[in-house]
Every structure is written in structure tokens, then in C-alpha cells.
Amino acid sequence: MKTEFREVLIVGAGAAGLNCALHLPEGTDALVICKGGLRESDSFLAQGGICVLHDPADEESYFEDTMRAGHYENNPDTVRCMIAHSRETIDELISFGVRFAREEDGSLAYTREGAHSRPRIVFHADCTGREIASHLLRAAQKRANVELRPYTTMVDLLFSAEGDCVGAAVRDNRTKEVSLVYAGNTVLATGGVGGLFSHSTNYRILTGDGVGAALAHGVAADHLDYVQFHPTTLYTRRRGRRFLISESVRGEGAQLLNAAGERFVDELLPRDVVTAAIRAQMQTEGSDHVRLDLRTVRGGEKTLEEHFPGIVRRCRKEGYDVFEAPIPVVPAQHYFMGGVRSDLSGRTTAPHLYAVGETCCNGVHGKNRLASNSLLEALIFARRAAADIARGARAKGRTQWDYTQKEIAALERARRERVIRETHHESK
Asked: The pTM is what?
């Protein structure tokens, strides 16, 4: 079996994985693997934007909004840390070339989304995630110390006899060859669990691999039943990934309507509250969707064309004209607030194993994520994990295991079944 050695192995190439790689010392030999293509992460799908502390006077309201949305189950220290580092994170993204929307005077433009008490979200049209992740990817591709290896699946984590994580067994999805990657430190950034749900905004390849592998080795995880459903995805009878209708459209004035054309909920309440209201309305009507009227967006057609061009195009492709009538929408699984337990530096309960992004549970989101906190959280704590790795010692020790295809299939099946069992416990 092929064996290789790296200082750092990062499993996942979304915003969290890439930002972790970018903040490692340039002399650090890092391998970044991902299950699909380099652009097949939910970071590329994020529409609405990324939160930032608007000004010093906004700190307490931002903190309270995040806590309230999370049902006060958030870790206050983690929330404070995220808010404190938000402005420098946005500034760094701009230095990478990220083009956020600007006002006429050149200052950053801010929008508002559900459960936010004021506008504090910066954005790039309705494809903020793609704008950010694309620039992170280009930056990583230029780093001589970072190797990006797509179409490579983590089969299992490797541990020494002393209990230190020492890397992972990985499989080339095209050749089916399995190899052992020994690493001084391993970072789980495998994203969420949407691929385990019938209706999700996530890529189907996101099946909780990091969480499942951690659980299999006794690494602590928290709140695996904390699964967020986004209130508004474009209704379709077709199977596959659901198209998200960004919360920003409601932040800009779009209204949810029942069959009689009447509003039935405050569109800017937290996501779980709006989702519950939609489900109740669907049950009352005996319908499989409700309606979202984009014609009430402030600024009218100009705002829709400039701020939400992707949504306008996709709706038109599906046969809906957002300028003429409301569009059908329905909730779908969107985000995972649970995950591998991690601290403010991304450290898990296993030595030399880190978890960042949607794979981890550091307490920042509580029971329900505040809109547009996901990219911010992923970037900040991935950077902190990289800093901790740079300061710490490398894992030592080796294990040897010749994985057969039968063993690999059994590992993946058991991991998938456990994650499905845990995440679906209270999320239907």
C-alpha cells in the first residue's frame, strides 16, 4: 500500500479547509484533499453574504442577535471571538481580491437578513460564497507548499498506539487506489451532512465523513441532531439538490404569501421559526409549497437585477418570472450546527486532530445558525487552527493497516449509517 508523509493533512477544500492551508507557515508541507472537484463545496454555493461587525456600537446587538437565533445555547466566548475578528477577516478577503458590493461613495454596502437587528452583511451580488471561495482557491493554488488533490475520499482516520491522530487512509476515487497519508496534524473540514437528506441545498457528496470518522474512533461530538432547514428553496418535483432562494431577498423586502396571497409570518424571524410557520401553512392548505413575492423588494426591478441576478436567471430557467408573480418555495435541509467538538483553536478531543467549518461544533451557532455567520465562522476558526498548528508539536507514531475493498465498504457504510441515525434523531 502506498504511503506518504505530510506535515499537515487537510480533509476538505471549502472555505475552511482552504483558509487553514493559506495561514499555515509557507514552509509547511500541506496536502488538501476533497471528495469531489475543487469547486464542489457548499462554500461555492453560499448566496447571501458574510457578516461583519458594522461598527463598534454594533457589537452587543450582533452578539445578542447571534445568541437569540441560537436559542442561547451558543458558547458566548466563541461568539465574542468571531465578532471580534470579523472586520479583519473581511479586510483580508478584500486583500485576496474579493469584490464586495459598494455604495456610490466607495464604502462597503450592507444588507440585512432574518433575525438581524440591523444591516451588517457584506455581499457580492447573490453569489458571495463563490466569490470568496474562488479567490481562496486561486491563492492556495499559488502556494508552493500546498498540494490540492481532488476526487480523493478519506476512508478512515489513523491513530498511533498512544491515541494521537497521525493522518488518514485515503482513496483515489478514479483509480480506487488506497494509500496511507501520515501527517503531523490532521484537519477535518469535510462540510455538512446534506447528502444524507432527501431534500437539501447541499452537494450530495457531503455525507458527514469527518463526523463519522471521528465518532468511529471515540472523538467527542456534540449536538448531532441540530440540523437547520432553510425556509426558502425553489420548489421542484425533481430529485437532487434544491436551489436556495437567498434570505437576502427577504431582508430586502420579499414577502411570504399563502394561497390567498396574504402574508402569514414575519419574514425576518430566525430561520427555524420561519420554517415552522411555512410547514404549518402548508399543512393548513394541504399544499407542498408556499409563495415568495420578490416584487416587494425595495428598489424593485433594479435591485433584483443587480443584487440577485443568479436567482432571477434560475427562476426564469424553471419557468418563473419573478417580475410578474410570486414563486413557489419550500423548506429544505441547509446547515449542520452539530459536529466534532472543537475549541476556539479548532482542537478536538484527540491530539493532533482539528475540526473546522461545518464539520465542527465549537458552539458559535447554538441550536440555530444566524444567517450569514457560516462563512465568517469557517474562515476565522480555520485561521486560528492554522496558528495553533504552527505553534504546536507534530504527532509521532505510525500504524499499519492494509485496507481491503471489503473493509473500506464496511467502514463507509457504518460511518454513514451512524451519522444518519444521529443527525435525523430530531430533525425531521
From this structure: 0.91
